[in-house]
Amino acid sequence: MAETKPAPGDWIGASLLRREDARFLIGKGQFVADIRLPGLEDACFVRSPMGHASLRGLRRPAEWAERVYTHDELGPFQALPAGPDIPGYRNVAYPVLATDRVCFAGQPIAAVVAPTRGEAEDIAGLVELDLDALPAVTDAVLAMAPDSPRIHDAWPDNAFITSGARAGDAAAVAATAPVRITRRLRMNRQSIVPLEGRAALAYWDHRLDELVVYLSTQGAHVMRLGIAQALGISEHKVHVIAPDVGGGFGGKNRLTPEEIAVCALALKRGHPVRWIEDRREHLMAAPQAREHVYDLTLYADRDGTMLALEGDVYIDAGAYPLWPTGAFAEASMAVRNLTGPYRIRHIALRNHTVATNKPPMGPYRGVARPGACFAMERLADELARELGLEPIEIRRRNMVTAGEMPYVTAAGMRLDNGDYPASLDEAARSIGLDAIRARQRTGEPDGRRIGVGFAFYTEQSGHGLKEWARRGARVMPSYETCTVRMLPDGSAQVLVGIQNHGQGLETTLSQIAAQELRLDPARIAVRHGDTAVSPFGFGTFASRSTVFAGGAVARSCRILAEKIRRIGGHLIQTDPVETRLEDGHVVGPSGAAVSFAEIGRAAHVRQEMMPPGVDPVLEATATYEPADSSGTFSYSTHAALVAVDPLTGGTELLDYVVAEDCGTMVNPLIVDGQVTGGVIQGIGTALYEEVPYDESGQPLATTFADYHMPCATEMPRVRISHFVTPSAITEYGIKGMGEGGAIAPPAAIANALADAFRDSGAQFNETPCTPRRVVAALEAAEVPT
Amino acid sequence: MKPPAFDYARPATLPEAFAALLGTEGAMALGGGQSLLPMLGLRVAAPSLLVDLARLPGLREVTETAARIRIGAGVTHAAIEDGVVADPSRGMLRRVAAGIAYRAVRNFGTIGGAVALADPAADWPACLLALDAVAIIAGPDGERRLPLEALLLGAYTTALEAGEILLGFDVPRLGAASRWGWCKLARKQGAYADSIGAVVLPGDGAPPRIVLGATTSRPALLPHAAAALARGEAGATLRDALLGDIEAAEPDADSYRRRCHLATVQRAIAQATSA
Amino acid sequence: MTRINLTLNGRAQHREVEPRQTLADFLRDGCDLTGTHLGCEHGACGACTVLIDGLPARSCIHLAVRADGCDVRSIEGLRDDPLTVLLRRHFHEAHALQCGYCTPGMLVTARDILRRFPAPDEATIRRELAGQICRCTGYVGIVEAIRRAGAELANQPS
Predict the structure, then answer these.
(1) Are residues C107 and C51 in the same domain?
(2) Alpha helices in A127-206, H assignment, sequence order
(3) Which Pfam families does the protein's record reference (chain C) (predicted)?
(4) Chain A residues near residue B2 by CB distance under 8 angstroms
(5) Is the same domain home to C89 and C64?
(6) Are both C96 and C30 inside the same structural domain?
(7) Interchain CB distance below 8 Å, B263 and A710
(8) pLDDT-derived band of residue A453, with 50, 70 and 90 as boundaries?
(9) What is the mean pLDDT of residues A242-263?
(10) Does B107 contact chain C (CB < 8 Å)?
């Protein structure tokens, strides 16, 4: 395995301890709910108690009438066109407050403002709603039946879009392929659950003549765009600040109605207003994730060669699209990633992005790929079982090898580099496959069954303009920006448009700046999360920030470094081209050196020391987009060892290993933290987390008593092996990796369950694999207790 | 998720507490609050007055006789877990206490509060029923004693009358020859139980007590299984008796629930009968 | 409003509170002690854990009126507490936090674990952490930090 030990003075590859930690460890992080302002009042929302209904009217308590706001009283709002700008995509507005129809339980209908949240809830509880229940649509597959109730009356069916991907001649292969594996696979709906929910605080700042919005978001600049547009205010009068953000995982990368409503309330009322989402609101009305159904057939030869993949993918997108990306990203990415690392040249895949009476689906760590990986990797294991092969053997036979790269998949993904089979072998070695097989033959003393499961995924990052244009994105996050500024004392500020919300980006970006400037990171501040501070950027999502913002930091620092050398060379009377940067100094070939402090002083306050023709001030701005628009691919094999109680269906994770390659690691400590953090969320998807809905559209998990997440007791110690294949298209060879950990666990764990009961052929094709579902699978396969 | 408005009283004597509970429409007693506060936040409970029992004399006391130990209703789960209070059960109470929710909840949640709420998934009702405990109840007209079977009527339903306060439990001391077993099944550590099996073998000639907890109603004694166990039955005979009792205790249980119940009771029995 | 007298982070306080106000809201809104975070408001996530008379408590399911006569300590009051100082260092070195939202409650709980279990092993730490939700780290760093702190304590001459 690659050991990353940077040379002295090199900061790329150093496991620097995080600079962010200090404030959180003393309770001095500053989240939106921590902001204190004079006159601040709390908002809450009157929400639909029904999954689908006509809204006939609303009666407010007379005593508090002026504290209750409906859509018409709070508006007007400009509609935000959300979703891709592509043919066949049906758009619909997600109203800030419902007007004549409610389409999911929890949808906001009216806003209430009061001095405290408790009082606001008192008033909300007195508002009477006149609702006529409509039949609810809660299953994306049934929703596509011709006689299904409609959610959006103007549409001919319930699909936002029906699309697909084709390559080769799947029908011809299907006619002759000797082996076919047909399965329905289902990944159920879950919540995203950052520990800090959504939060917004807004007020008009009369001195600056602008609306100040504190927002718990993953991208302040893009949210400003949306808020200004929705409210019809000029962008220069909207100032968005994302202070510390208590987790996002994708869900806070969308502008939601409650956040727009808070801004409108602040304008109407003339005092600061905040809304702090509580946990029940989060579980009912925040963006949700994951709900996919796959009806697939995999065709193969008798030797296990995968030939073709055909079928349908249903995405339960919820009632409305979220701004800016809309409802299609899941379906598009699921289909394009479905074949994973395998040489399958024939595909015929249809996808259906379906509206249902549930909250909108948003992006969540891994976006679409946990479902795609689950579907493909379960099929791979079922093929292995059908042919009597080891699951890793079926993968070896079909995986793209290093020698074949770059390899363009049937769905058009350009897998750039790496050694996929090596990662598979390492995971098998690390989990101890041979010893597990021996142990399985012996049996467990407690009567449980053990099983080992593998799953492989690739994770695209750094994709640029052409890729986003192909997707029809209305906001194309194909670059990032950085301004680097050196101050008169030689310390530096790095101003970026990404949003650190747990990823340690203040630390990693300081390391990149330190690398380029040859300056101790302790002398470099990283600032983000404020539209008034940093140049425009898109924020942190899609495993993009270290690739994009890291690249922008590197580029801007190089521009600055050149100027520093020019000034420094002048001060030590040396040709700048002969100088180098070293430990905060410009050093000449003779050893003569001048510190950045002296250079900063010259550039700012002692201009007479500057070389002729060089402007004062040390500041540079640069944007960055990787060299190839198709992106670069991290990859990983996960392996899980489970023990299952055949009587109760209880599943314990005994071991979990990851063999991953994310190219060059800027900070290996943080990389491991991101991998492990992703894995536990994937374990949640695999075994615990689910928001089920009943037939009327009522959510059945609205507190943590019903919505289970893995805690320390349920989590094994994750063991990680690293490979390092630097990307050829990014600065330093970095590949994005923040999401990856969450992609493979559902597949690896379901495969482990199937392995534990391989003899009986019990099927584990639905997540989360709750004890109840495991028992159902065992009973269907007639596994004795 | 903020509690609705209510008044608050913290009586110093039992008569004051009775008066507060009976004198105000919609008054509720507040024990440790670890279940009531979430219900207030969710606004599924809306009392006009909360009568805080925390400062009532005697509720945290533990008194011992040769045959029984009386545990005050206000004793916390953590105090039992830590062995701070005398244990009549040769370790069963401590074991049960340690598995309730989380330490920060156990520090304030009380044994009396848990029984009075009668949440079907709660641990103490099943445990105290298996231990053949008797509840001591105080009301305006004096004290009365009710065996757990008579106190627990159903999900969230007890025989406590309006204005009555649970003072504590008399728990018989288990003898040196006694054995017990406890098995709780939950989705994860600290979560509400899906099933509880509790077994006490008094070892003094008294019959075994086998309890199934976390049913959809109240915890149930399993009489046929207990009789089979007393006869020394094991294997299929005991299992059949168990399945019959489980059917009676939770007639609507589906296959999964039956499996859970079978597992917890079987494992509790195995624990109690193992060497 | 009800009058309460309590010791808060070592200082006597005399306050008026509404009966319905939770201790968490009292600390955050009444005392501006915003280090106590709300993650669920129903006692399940542990982010709001503080000490009442030395015992970890979920301040979101504890009424402020009940803190009358109590000694309450929040993360702000543990700034110089030797055990917390030790834990803080190990949390930093073991990468035991990411977004930082769960961290104050996690530290209060970790401190209690070390007080009850000298040099706890991994299984003990995991069991005792069960009620603390961290959505970011996967607990690996947290468990390791507590283990290291416990081991360091055990090796110190008392």
Answers:
(1) no
(2) 170-176
(3) Fer2, Fer2_2
(4) 116-118, 121
(5) no
(6) no
(7) no
(8) very high
(9) 97
(10) yes
d(CA A571, CA A601): 12
Q: Are residues C89 and C149 in the same domain?
A: yes
Q: Does B117 touch chain A (CB under 8 A)?
A: no
Nearest CA in chain A to C27: A34
Cβ-defined contact of A677 to C38 (cutoff 8 Å): no
DSSP string, A412-467: --EE-S--HHHHHHHHHHHHTHHHHHHHHHH--TTS-EEEEEEEEEEEEES--HHH
Whole-number Å distance between alpha carbons of C36 and A43:
21
| Domain count within chain C | 2
Closest in C55, C61, C65 to B38, CB measured: C61
Q: What is the pTM of this model?
A: 0.97
pLDDT for position A258: 98
What would the two tokens of residue B121 be? Answer: 């998934």
| Predicted local distance difference test score (pLDDT) of residue A1 | 40
Size of interface A-C (CB pairs under 8 A): 166
Q: Which of residues 67-106 of C touch A (CB under 8 A)?
A: 74-76, 79, 88, 91-93, 95, 97-104
- pLDDT, tens digit, for every residue of A476-530? 999 999 999 999 999 999 999 999 999 999 999 999 999 999 999 999 999 999 9
Contacts of A239 (CB under 8 A, 6+ apart): A205, A208, A210, A211, A212, A213, A224, A530, A531, A532
CATH code (residue C41): 3.10.20.30
CB within 8 Å: A116 and B2: yes
pLDDT in tens, B137-165: 999 999 999 999 999 999 999 999 999 99
Q: What domains does chain B contain, in order, with CATH numbers?
A: 1-53+63-173 (3.30.465.10), 180-273 (3.30.390.50)
Beta bridge partners of A657: A639, A719
Identify from C3, C29, C48, C63 which residue to disrupt to test chain B contact, counting B C-beta atoms within 10 A and taking the largest count.
C63
Comparing CB atoms, the residue among C57, C63, C127 nearest residue B104 is: C57
Same domain, C86 and C73: no
Digit-coded pLDDT (tens) for C61-113: 999 999 999 999 999 999 999 999 999 999 999 999 999 999 999 999 999 99
**For residue C86, what is the nearest residue in chain A, using CA coordinates?**
A25
Is residue C40 domain-shared with residue C103, that is, in the same domain?
Answer: no
Residues C91 and C46 in one domain: no
Q: Give the residue among B120, B113, B223, B217 at the shortest CA–CA distance from B168.
A: B113
Average pLDDT for residues B75-101, to the nearest whole number? 96
Task: Tell me the ipTM for this assembly.
Answer: 0.98
> Are both C144 and C99 inside the same structural domain?
yes
Residue at a domain's end among C77, C93, C108: C77
Q: How far is B226 from chain A (nearest CA, A)?
A: 22
What band does B275 get if pLDDT is binned at 50, 70 and 90?
A: low
Asked if B38 is an interface residue toward chain A (Cβ–Cβ < 8 A), one would say yes
Q: Which residue of B has its CA nearest to A714?
A: B188
Partner residue opposite A708 with nearest CB, options B5, B185, B188:
B188
Q: Map residue A748 onto helix, strand or coil.
A: helix
Touching subunits of B (3+ CB pairs, under 8 Å) are: A, C
Q: Does A649 touch chain B (CB under 8 A)?
A: yes
CB A101 within 8 A of CB A55: yes
| Each residue's pLDDT tens digit, A402-419 | 999 999 999 999 999 999
- B108/chain C closest Cα distance in angstroms: 7
Helix (H, G, I), strand (E, B) or coil at A723: strand
Chain A residues in contact with B187 by the CB 8 A cut-off are 688, 708, 770-771
The domain of C32 spans 2-77
Contacts A–B by Cβ distance under 8 A: 59
Q: Which of residues C49, C77, C105 is at a domain's end?
A: C77
Question: What's the confidence (pLDDT) of residue A2?
Answer: 40
Instruction: Please tell me the distance from the alpha carbon of residue A326 to that of residue C122, in angstroms, as a whole number.
Output: 44
